[in-house]
């Protein structure tokens, strides 16, 4: 009987500790995790699309970098979300899927990919991650945002370089 009681008590204690952590996460921190997870999945899918569809070698390499870097960040964020009791999508949500689908149909794929995924999305993401790093309440969530910023900034800088190179070749 004692052998069964100790694991049961431990499970109840762990459950209570988890529930306490789950309830203590600030609403804005929770929303950041959810939004970052959906955006990260979009970046991976768009990156895969870019790897297969881009004509420009630099755009293909950039797409591969997005897919690789965001896959790693997504795994880290998934673990953080689980630790904090936040449910995040495991597949691309409809809103983000529509963006990827629209990109897939773009007339000048390479130009649109660099502009939309590389520049516009990353400018927006950097703002969100800077805000979380500055104003977030949970130290683990803030640390994730801070750690992610240099990678997002690297992506933006590379996308801007590729965009300038592509414009230079046309005119």
TrEMBL record:
Residues 1-19 form the signal peptide. The keyword Transmembrane does not apply. Keywords: Signal. The keyword Membrane does not apply. Gene3D superfamilies: 1.20.1260.10. It holds the Pfam family DUF4142. Residues 28-162 form the DUF4142 domain. It comes from Ramlibacter ginsenosidimutans. This is DUF4142 domain-containing protein.
């Amino acid at each position: 009987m004692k052998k069964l009681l100790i694991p049961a008590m431990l499970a109840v204690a762990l459950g209570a500790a988890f529930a306490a952590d789950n309830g203590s996460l600030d609403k804005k921190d929770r929303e950041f995790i959810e939004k970052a997870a959906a955006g990260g999945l979009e970046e991976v899918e768009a990156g895969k699309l870019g790897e297969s569809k881009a004509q420009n070698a630099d755009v293909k390499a950039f797409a591969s970098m997005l897919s690789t870097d965001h896959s790693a960040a997504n795994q880290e964020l998934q673990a953080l979300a689980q630790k904090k009791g936040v449910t995040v999508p495991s597949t691309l949500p409809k809103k983000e899927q529509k963006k990827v689908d629209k990109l897939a149909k773009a007339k000048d794929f390479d130009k649109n990919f660099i502009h939309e995924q590389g520049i516009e999305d990353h400018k927006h993401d950097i703002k969100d991650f800077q805000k979380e790093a500055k104003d977030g309440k949970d130290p683990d969530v803030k640390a994730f945002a801070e750690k992610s910023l240099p990678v997002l900034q690297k992506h933006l800088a590379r996308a801007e370089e590729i965009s300038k190179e592509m414009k230079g070749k046309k005119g």
